[in-house]
Amino acid sequence: MSTSTPVPDHLPADLATAELDLQRAVLDAIGAVPSRRLAASLLFEGLRLLPIALRLGNALKQAGLQPTLLWPDAGAAALARREAPELQTFIKDFNQWSAGTEAGDRTDLILAISPQPSDYEDFQEICEAHAGMVVMLNGRLEDAAVGIGSVARERRRGFVASWTACYWLQPLDAGALMRIHPDDWRVFRQDPDGYRLAGTLSSRPDSEDLAELLSTDGTQGIAAQLNTVDRFLDGLRN
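^ thats the sequence. predicted structure below, dont judge the formating
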């Protein structure tokens, strides 16, 4: 399934480019990484995820796959079926999938759209019962506010750690973080003349890594930084 796609040394110019990068990264990673659990994330506030999820579902179909698009709740799944009648037989909610009343719907690939901490137990059960590939789009599995025992906490960490991020694009206060399979993680720093590559890492950088890579000599004003980040976000949302 994997194809070799050059990874850019720059941020995408707009959301359409970012979305195509995400689709290519997912398709490249399927069958090319040992993990059966892939995560793809476009982390922008106010992002309309439904059309992105539906286009990714169509891209998977066009690649010869038979994905089942899973939404955590019935309302979101119903809206998706209304918006994409060509995919309606491939769209289900978590309860429909777990009920297992239609054996023919058990496909090799699940595309799970935006599971949240409140969906954690149901989603984990689905993933552990599914022998095929699971692609998680804009999922968030951790919630620091949840008080759980040490055994449950370790189990949750193990599940969270089982995911391979094949695509990641996230704006930061003074830059951006990007990962496109099969390349390393890339940190872009926002300088007075635009975004430039500040460093690459083999694993997702923590807060200390980001602080070091994004540090500047102080010549750039905070207002200028925020204005440039705002322009970048506006371009991605248009």
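DSSP finds eight helices and nine strands in the chain.
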